[in-house]
Amino acid sequence: MTSRRSPLAMAVLSLVVETPMHAYRMQQLIKERHKDDVVNVAQRNSVYQTIDRLRRDGLIAVQTTTRDENRPERTVYEPTAAGRDTLREWMRAMLADPRREFPEFPAALAFLPVLTIPEAVEALTERLTALETRVAALDAELADGAAFLPRVFLVETEYQRAVVAAEAGFVRRLLADIGTGDVTWY
């Protein structure tokens, strides 16, 4: 059975390939490594659901289950051979195949005339401020990481920075075009 590919499933498989671990540690590492910028782990339950699916599909297996005094039971997972193969297959596909994604911002742009011009300008200005703040944070993260990490561990941050900076440039130009009347409402 082929498991459904997702960023979270890919992250879980990547972590257990690195070293066998329990679900809570997976969620901690994703956050510590700032991978929660690209993988949604806001709900701990989503990690457990992903683990259940990967186990059901034979991609990970239980290595050990322990229970320390006054602590909940901890199950440590490890990859199966099929899990290692599937991870490499997913990685190749995710890198090579640009899929259609449906983020909210382009959808909002598609229906921009629902707002008045002042409402649109206010919302876009707020977005631009948030994007500029995010670019600065990513710049700091890259500078800090470059001091002790090989570049391969920073490429997703470089990508995020490029995307956020490009979006900020787009929003800046759109605001300018609205201001000059080059973008008008019907």
Oligomer: single chain
Number of strands: 3
Shape: elongated
Physical arrangement of strands within the biggest beta sheet: 1-3-2
Low-confidence stretches: none
Please state the CA-atom Rg, rounded to the nearest Å: 21 Å
Q: Largest sheet, if any?
A: 3 strands, antiparallel
H and E string? HEHHEEHHHH
- Helix % is 55-70%
Number of discrete helical segments: 7
- Kindly report how far apart the N and C termini lie: 52 Å
| Chain-averaged pLDDT | 93
Beta-strand proportion: 5-15%
Overall structural class, as computed from helix and strand content, comes to mainly alpha
Provide a descriptive summary of the structure in words:
This protein has 186 residues and is mainly alpha-helical. It has seven helices and three strands. The protein has helices spanning 7-18, 23-32, 44-56, 81-96, 104-110, 117-146, 155-180, and strands at residues 21-22, 60-66, 74-79. A three-stranded antiparallel sheet has the order 1-3-2. A hairpin with a 7-residue loop joins strand 2 (60-66) and strand 3. Helix 1 packs across helix 4. It is elongated, with a radius of gyration of 21 Å.
